[in-house]
Design brief:
This protein is of the alpha+beta class and 428 residues long. The protein folds into four domains: 82 residues, Rossmann fold, CATH 3.40.50; 65 residues, Dna Ligase, domain 1 (2-Layer Sandwich); 123 residues, ATP-grasp fold, B domain (D-amino Acid Aminotransferase, Chain A, domain 1); 105 residues, Alpha-Beta Complex (Glycinamide Ribonucleotide Synthetase, Chain A, domain 4). Helix content is 30%, strand content 29%. It has 15 helices and 25 strands. Strands 12, 15, 18, 20, 23 and 25 form a six-stranded antiparallel β-sheet that branches. Strands 3-2-1-4-5 form a five-stranded parallel β-sheet, with helices on both faces. The chain has a four-stranded antiparallel β-sheet with strand order 6-9-7-8, with helices on both faces. α1 links the parallel β1 and β2. The longest helix is centred in the middle third of the chain and has 12 residues. The radius of gyration is 21 Å and the shape is globular. It starts with a strand and ends in a 5-residue tail after the last helix. Bound molecules: adenosine monophosphate and glycine (GLY).
Length: 428
């Protein structure tokens, strides 16, 4: 089976590595040059052609952009088998207002919210809130359009910048203001064929830019999976109360949803509540989840795409920590164009598909007069390590990172900290 993955990030690289175990031909479009340079023992190629010009038995769409632009509708129009929702279904992620209405229809617990197009009304509402402020752009903003603060003045400034178009252009002019939810945040992804839904291992994403969850929200600076504090019965409850009811909403709207349903959840004292839904695999969670998957991912995705999902994903008991290497200035103004140095031969580092230390490339590019890789966007690569304990995985991941460098490299040093505290009994 030839599989075509659409996208160019570390999530797509990880999907390619996982899928290549079960498929003799995996192509990523457009991919990135790091994918071409690594894992040469696997059948992973990149292709700059438009996906609609590529011949494949199965298409897997990575990022939200192409989904919200209707790539699935186009590919299905060519009778292709595609994993991912159509444009209508993708509104679950591309419009927070659509998502909130869907949650309400499904009776899924989430934060109270109001929508504003007009600054005076929005700022008046802000004044009435107590305990914290969450201000979101309605449109897609790569995980960066959300501002969470307990400081009223900072909230007002963010609201002004969004609504006058300074910070997010048109995407910021309509805002959602939400009640602040407090608790542990987790990500639960499930695969669905529109009727049956099966969960993957949960993960915890480190959203803030700096250690100890400080600094601005980002697309994700690292992740670990599975969190010990999410037991099987909790996962079942999350699936039943927070994700499955969406299938009824899709049905009522005539949406045949085949793909990933990704719930970002807050484990509040009143129970799990949905923070957001995404319509695709999470990045960087996928790089922490897939190394533990024992089942045939290609078969699961193919079954879901055909509307005939029968298998359940099975995971081993290993723990994975994934750390994102970013460039200084990410997420607001990343510095780009720096050469990436590897202390070992690049092949020795990335060629360990069977070992438990893996690199997945994202924002990397080449230059005509140099055979190395250079930084080309804020999140440069993911380094993921798997072991029997989080403690060991953490040692390995940071050891691996010490062999990679580029000017202005920035990464969090505390990914998996809470997991290790649970593992070692410091947290209960
Ligand atoms: P979103 O893009 O809606 O997922 O928001 C990005 C991040 O902002 C989430 O992952 C949370 O960490 C935080 N966040 C969003 N909404 C809320 C909320 N209502 N209460 C607390 N934190 C939130
Ligand atoms: N890690 C958050 C996301 O994929 O949107």
């Amino acid at each position: 089976m030839k599989i075509c993955i659409v996208g160019s990030g570390a999530r797509e690289h990880c999907l390619a590595v996982s899928l290549s175990k079960f498929s003799n031909s995996v192509v990523v479009t457009p991919g990135n040059p790091g994918m071409d340079m690594s894992y040469s023992s696997l059948n992973i190629a990149t292709d700059l052609n438009d996906p609609t010009d590529i011949d494949a038995d199965l298409f897997v769409i990575g990022p939200e952009g192409p989904l919200s632009e209707g790539i699935v509708d186009k590919l299905k129009g060519q009778s292709k088998v595609v994993f991912g929702p159509d444009q209508q279904g993708a509104q679950l992620e591309s419009s927070k207002i659509w998502m909130k209405a869907a949650l309400k229809q499904a009776g899924i617990p989430t934060a109270d919210f109001k929508v504003f197009d007009e600054f005076v009304a929005a700022s008046n509402y802000l004044k009435t809130l107590r305990g914290g402020y969450v201000i979101k752009t309605d449109g897609l903003a790569a995980g960066k359009g959300v501002f969470v603060t307990k400081d009223y003045d900072l909230a007002l400034k963010d609201l002004q910048d969004k609504m006058n178009g300074t910070s997010f252009g048109q995407a910021g002019k309509r805002v959602v203001i939400e009640e602040l939810m407090e608790g542990q945040e987790i990500s639960v992804m499930a695969l669905t064929d529109g009727k049956k839904i099966v969960p993957l291992s949960p993960a915890v994403d480190a959203k803030r830019c700096f250690d100890d969850d400080l600094g601005p929200n980002t697309g994700g600076m690292g992740a670990y999976s599975p969190p010990d504090f999410v037991h099987d019965d909790m996962l079942d409850k999350i699936l039943e109360k927070c994700i499955e009811p969406l299938l009824g909403v899709f049905k009522s709207k005539g949406i045949d949803y085949r793909g990933v349903l990704y719930a970002g959840l807050m484990l509040t004292p009143e129970g799990p509540k949905v923070v957001e839904f995404n319509v695709r695999f999470g990045d960087p969670e996928t790089q922490a989840i897939l190394p533990g998957l024992e089942s045939d991912l290609a078969s699961l995705i193919y079954q879901a795409s055909l509307g005939k999902l029968t298998d359940e994903p099975k995971f081993n008991k290993n723990k994975t920590i994934n750390v994102v290497l970013a460039t200084n200035g990410y997420p607001d103004s990343p510095t780009l164009g720096d050469k990436i140095y590897f202390k070992e031969d690049i092949d020795d580092i990335v060629e360990r598909a069977d070992s438990n230390v893996r690199i997945f490339f994202a924002g990397v590019t080449t230059k005509p007069d140099d055979d190395g890789l250079f930084t080309s966007s804020g999140r440069v690569m993911s380094v993921a390590c798997t072991d029997t304990t989080f403690e060991n995985a953490k040692l390995k991941v940071y050891d691996q990172i010490s062999k990679i460098s580029f000017d202005k490299m920035h990464f969090r040093k505390d990914i998996g900290k809470k997991a290790i505290e649970f593992e070692t009994g410091k947290l209960k």
